[in-house]
Every structure is written in C-alpha cells, then in structure tokens.
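ok trying this again, last paste got cut off
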Amino acid sequence: NIQQDYEPLFEDIEERAKVERSLLKKLDRRMYLLGVIYILNCVYQSNLAVARLRGFEEDLELEGSQYASCLAIVYVGYILTQVPSNMYLEHIGRPSIYLSSCMILWGFISMLTGAARGFYDALIARFCLGFVEAAFFPGALLLISKWYKRDEIGQRTAYLANGLLIANAAGSLLASGILGIMDNAYGIAAWRWLFFVEGALTISVAICAMYILPDFPKTSSGWLSSAEHSLAIRRIQEEYTVGDSPEHPFNGLLLALSDKKVWSLAIILGLHTFSSSFHIYFPTLVQTIGYDPIATLLISTPPWLTAIVTVIVISRHSDEKSERCWHITCSMGIALIGYLVAISTMNPVVRYISFFLMTQIHAGYVCFMAWASTSVSDPPSKRASALALINTGGILASIFVPYAWPSSWGPDYSKSFGICIFANILTITACCVFRGHLASLNALTTPRVLVGKQYQYQL
C-alpha cells in the first residue's frame, strides 16, 4: 500500500509540510484552468444580453416574452441534468475527459446559436445547451472538494467563481471588440459572429483541458510524485469522517435527499439567485445611463473589476477566520444599498456608482458555495449529489429570473430592483437561521469531536 509506505514520512511535520506545499503548487496550476473554463461558460451566458444590444431580437423577429424564454429555457436542461451528471462523474472519476467533452459540445451549440434564423431555432439551441453546460459548475465544485481541505476550499472556490466576474468584465471588452471588428463582415451580423468566435474559442480550450485538468486523487497519475499522490489521498481522509470509499452513487443521492441541510442550502441559493439577478441584464441597465452600445459595454467593465478584488479579499479572510455567514451577509448588505440607490434616482453618476455596490454581492456567493461544500461533505458519494442538488436550487430560480426584468419596467426598473431587495433580505435572514441550526448541531457533536469522530460545521 503506497499510503502505508509513506506513513513514517508524514509523521515528520516539516517533511509533510514540504510535500504538501509541492502538492498544492502543482494542483493549483492545473485547477486555474477551471476558472478559465468558467469564464468562457459565463461569457457565453451573457452573450444573449450583448446580442440584444446589436439586433438579436430584431433579426429573429422576437415578440413579447420570447427573449426571456430564450434566456430561461437553458435552465430546464440544467435542472434535469445536474444531479445525474455529478453522480456519473463521481462514478467514473475522470473529470478531465468528462468535463472537457461537455465543453466541446457547448462550444459547438454556441456556434449553432449564431446560425439561428428564428425564435424556435434559438430556443432549441438554448434548450440543448442546458444539458451539456449543466455538467460543469457542480462538477468543478466536486473536483475542488476532492482535493482541498475545508480551510482551503473558500479561496479555490473564489478563483473559480471569479470566472463569472471576469466574464462580465472581460466579456464586455471581448464582445465590444468582436462587434466592432466583425460588424457585417461577409454580410453576417455582428451578434452572430459573437457566437461563432466564442464557440470556436471554447472548443480550443476544451481540447487543452483534456490534458491539463486533474482527475480525482485516486484516479490521477503521472503529474504527482508517489509521496504527493499518497498525501493527497490522506489529506481528505483526515479532513472528513468518511474515507473516499467506492459507494454506489445512488446511496449518496438518497443521503443527500434526506438531509435537511441540503434543501435549506438549495433554498438559500435560489433566493440569492433572485437577489443577484441584475447581472443577467447588466448591459441593459448600464445603457440606461445614456451611452451607445459599444461605450455601454466598455463602462460595464469597472464594476466587475472591483468585485473581483473584493471576492478574493473576502474569501481569503473567510478561510482564515473559518467563518462564512457574516461574510455572506456583509457583502449582501452592500449590494442592498446599491439596489436602494438605483431605485431612488436616474441620475447617471449616482446610478453608475450603485452598480459598483451591486456587484459586491458576488463575494457572498463565493463564501456561500464554500459553506455549502463543507456542510454536506460526508460521505463522498453524498457530496456529489448534494452539491448538484444545491446548485439546482439556484438554477430553478434562474428559470423565473428573466421574467423579473421585462423591458416594459424600464428604464428605471424599479419593480425589478424591488424584487432584488426583497430576495436580498430573505437571503440574509435565511443565512442567519441556517447558521443557528449549524451552531446547534455543533453543540450536540462537541463530545464526539474530541475523540475525532466528527468535525464541527463552519459557521
């Protein structure tokens, strides 16, 4: 047994720390690609909002709520696919192949969206997209939880989730470049080029990911030394109360379905999704300041850049203090101020400042996902299904979110921001209640912690 061979080595604290530093350095270099993939995923998700500024609705002759339907339909595939996808990934243990293959498919479907000729073409493409995109985010969270300890997950989740913020920032710059350079090139509308170019880029990165992404500790090989590989397995076995055993995925699903914490976290994420729904329509909101489409995309970038810095700082502090709830509620409180400012005025300068405050909500999202990962971790088969079920709570809310931002409520969108405010307050309240529940569980398990049979939940 390789692990037993290195038992004496791991008893030496200094030598173990040396091997662990080397392991994390190698692992982080490969895991950074998850952030790149998520950027491409989020850029594509925001493409519809960008395309809307350059004739998407007019060219496809969309009417009424058809645009909102194109946004919402993708999440139907998410809901149907996320849980079985994570169960399958847990079973095969090869995210480098599985996630990359799904990525190639969604790049191809992106290109097909650019070729849509009417509402039903776009609707079908978006529906199919949901099935292949659904595998990535819960699969990425599962992959992170397989390698990192609880006091390391928050920062790594932050690097992953920053993909959303970078996509909103760099995606606007990329989109403005494509729209400016490719406008009517070869007689093809600029918004179609947006889907063609970014779809091709996604496929290219996916091919590289097959050779770079790590698999799970017990299925990875070749890029770690024997000592590093053994320590990677041991670290997670020490961290949680159940080893990385080959349980049947359906056992894990039943455990996840019967855990009230999973449902509580899913509801909180659903509320948070409504509260942060402004980002789906961010270019449209920024355009209310009064600039042309290209300028709108350019000034959409700074609020997301500040949010990236905030996410890294708050998630790191959350890891260091091993605390989640107050970090979540603090960032949501800042966003709440932003909503109240936006709802009270149409002054261009003041409204633009409010966008900086709104984007801070994503620091809370990162801390929440780290909180979720460490609250439902045993056994590993349960973790896979639980993370997918929790994420499904957010996806279910996403189906209805587009209908909270109809064009008829513009340009102030006061009713839409009112929904965000209500959802924000409910999310903060739910987080505090959930924290109290975990605290009560910690009080019950304290005697068992002392003998090493349980760990305390992060609050």
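PB: full thing came through this time. The chain is about 80% helix and 0% strand.
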